[in-house]
Amino acid sequence: xxxxxxxxxxxxxxxxxMGGAMDLAASEATTLERTPGxxxxxxxxxxxxxxxxxxxxxxxxxxxFLVSALVILFLVFISVRPSAIASGNPLTCDLARAQDGxxxxxxxxYDGQGCDVYTRTVYGARTSVTVGVLATLGVSVFGxxxxxxxxxxxxxxxxxxSRITDIFFAIPVVLGGLVxxxxxxxxxxxxxxxxxxxxxxxxxxxxxxxxxxxxxxNDYVQAARALGASDPRILLRHIAPNAVAPVIxxxxxxLGTYIALEATLSYLGVGLKPPSVSWGxxxxxxxxxxxxxxxxLLWPSGALAVTVLAFIMLGDAVRDALDPKLR
Length: 327
Description:
Layout: H1 4-9, H2 11-14, H3 21-24, H4 51-60, H5 63-80, H6 117-153, H7 155-169, H8 173-181, H9 190-215, H10 219-226, H11 231-268, H12 279-286, H13 294-322
Helix pairs in contact: 4-13, 5-6, 5-13, 6-7, 6-9, 6-11, 6-13, 7-9, 8-9, 9-11, 10-11, 11-12, 11-13, 12-13
């Protein structure tokens, strides 16, 4: 019991994540360069605000974040309940109305197969958002764990992981998709998601590794180690909360990139395939009719562009809010 008392007493010195550890190192950590006693550096109770509370306050005042967040919330809503704004069936087509323009109840007209472009555009959001979110989660978790462990322990593990990431960085993404997905017969989103995780984790791994290397040099980590804290505790309670910000920024921007990649692979015929509903599939099907029915190409392309732009804008806003050098 006496051996545990210094460690328990030192918890206040080592801190516990963003709320404790970062506040302790505020005088030296650049992420919390605020005046503790002033109104800009204190919360409602007079306590110094953390990086996350400052970031949330800045995001609420950023019109770029608000607009992009509203667009993304709308996309998530129609992905969960597309029937709320599109009552038709995206697989129901009428060849007699192929390439027709807009009509009552069908504002986007019909494609080359006589399918309602509006309904297919709305239902296509579900596929894009599902692939983007799941691929981003997989890449973030897998890459963060590998990169974080390599940055913390270093040595042989770090050297081997660095060489492996170099190999993956040398693989062209689109070419790799053409090779790997061309042999897949499944018509679900899982092969596409698995491919994105396979080639996407090295980027997050590099970001997490560098962030962990920087965080483990801080005084609160050294204090926790000196007081006898175990490696899992240091990683989970002290380093991870302070090293996750760059990963969140990169993952948010990458989400839009994965949505665009899914559309590209589907356009090339190696991603999702009919009868799946995807913006990439619709863009590919409408390309031969661009002169006679440009609307069939315009609407899914526009929806894809707006979606990717919204996630990129969201990532830029989050980066500006979390980067103390841009304050």
